[in-house]
Amino acid sequence: MTQHAKKRPALLGAFLGMTATLAVVVGLGVIAGSGAAAGGAPSNTSAPTISGTAQVGKTLTADPGKWSGTTPITFTYQWQRCGRDGDGCSNINDHGRHHTVTSADVGNTVRVVVTAKNSDGTATAASAPTAVVAAPAAPANSAVPTISGSAQIGQTLTVNNGTWSGPGTITFSYQWLRCDQNGGSCAAITGATGNSYKLTSADVGHSLRVRVTAKNDNGSTSATTVPTAVVSSSANGCTIGASGTIAAASINAPARLSVSQMQFSPSILSHSTRQFVARFRVTACNGNPVQGALVYATGVPFHQLNNAPEATTDANGWATVSFQMMSGYPASPHQQLLAMFVRARKPGGSLLGGVSTRRLVSVPVR
C-alpha cells in the first residue's frame, strides 16, 4: 500500500470525528435556545402595589409588581372599586397607571388589576386594596388657640394656633377682635391680621380675642381664643407715659406714694411756739405730683400736737396741715427736735397696705 493510501483512512477518521463534535455543539445550541424560549407566558412573582393617599382629589399610582416570562412584557391596568373590606370589587372606567380618587370612592377601597402580556400569553394579578377612602375633611380643632402677653397698653400680644388635625397641609390666618370687658360684642380690628398685635390706647378698657382660621384643600375652620384680661393703661401700677400731675385714684399696687418734700412755718420751733403749719408733697410714678392723696400727720410722742384731720393734696401734690401745740409740748426742757409721723394714702385705700406710705420727719426746736 502506498503512503497516500495509508493517509486516506486517517483523514476520513479525523473528518468523521470533527463532524461528530460539531453535531454535539450544534445540538447544545438548540437545547439552549429551547430553554430561553421556554420562559413562556408571564407569571407574577411580586404583587402589584398602589402608592398615594386614599382621599378625594388625591392621585393613586399603580406599580405592576414583578413578573417572569418571555420578554418583552407589556402591562395594562384596570382600576376597581371594592367594599370596605376589599371584597365585592367592580371595574371603574380608569385604565391607566393613575387613578384620581373621586367622591364615588368615599367609603370604599380601591385596587388595581394588572394584566401582563408577552408573545407566549397573558396573566393577571391584583394589588391589595387601599385604605377606606375618607370624605373630604376641613381642619378640625382639638385645643383652642391661646393668647400670651400682658394686657397693658404698649405691650405686644401673641397668638398660639392651638391644636388642629386634618388631611394635607394646613395654613393659618388671623383676625384680632376688640371686645367688651366680658369678651362679648367683638369687632374686627382693621389691619390686625398677623399672629401678634401691639396694644394701643384704643384697646384700654376692652378685652381682646383672636379668630384663628385653619385651611386645607378641603375647606377652612375657625376657632376663637378666650378673651384677654381687660387692657390696662398702666404698668406696675402707674399710667404708662403719664407726665405732670396724676390722680391718686389712678395709682395701683405695686406702685407706692412717696412723701418726697416738706415745709414748715415757722421753720424752727421754739419752746413757746403755740401753732405752726406743715406742708407735705406727695409724688409717685417717677416723681410725678399726686393730686387727691390724703395726708395725715401727728407728733411723736403724742400729746404735743392736736389731732389734725387728713388733708388732700392739690394739683401740685401739696397738702397743708395746721397744728396747735398741746400741753405735752415741749416734751422736755432740752427738746431739740419735734418728731412727726406722716402718712399718705389713696382715698378708699388701706391705711397700712395698698399704695399708702409712712414716714418719720422732724422739725428743729430751739
Major β-sheet profile: 5 strands, mixed
Strand runs, count: 29
Envelope shape:
rod-shaped
* Oligomeric category: single chain
Instruction: Please give the radius of gyration in angstroms.
Output: 50 Å
Uncertain stretches:
1-38
Q: Topology as H/E string?
A: HEEEEEEEEEEEEEEEEEEEEEEEEEEEEE
CATH class of the largest domain: Mainly Beta
CATH hierarchy: architecture of the largest domain:
Sandwich
Tally of individual domains:
3
Q: On the 0-100 scale, what is the average pLDDT? A: 88
CATH topology of the largest domain: Immunoglobulin-like
Q: Compute the separation of the termini in Å.
A: 177 Å
CATH superfamily of the largest domain: Immunoglobulins
Category from helices, strands and their pairing: mainly beta
Explain what you see.
It is built from 1 helix and 29 strands. With 366 residues, the chain is mainly beta. Helices cover 10% and strands 41% of the residues. Strands 21, 22, 23, 24 and 27 form a 5-stranded mixed β-sheet that branches. A 4-stranded antiparallel β-sheet has the order 6-5-8-9, with no helix packed on it. Strands 15-14-17-18 form a 4-stranded antiparallel β-sheet, with no helix packed on it. It folds into 3 domains: 84 residues, Immunoglobulin-like, CATH 2.60.40.2700; 85 residues, Immunoglobulin-like (Sandwich); 127 residues, Immunoglobulin-like. Strand 19 and strand 20 form a beta hairpin. The protein starts with a helix and ends with a strand. The longest helix has 35 residues. The radius of gyration is 50 Å and the shape is rod-shaped.
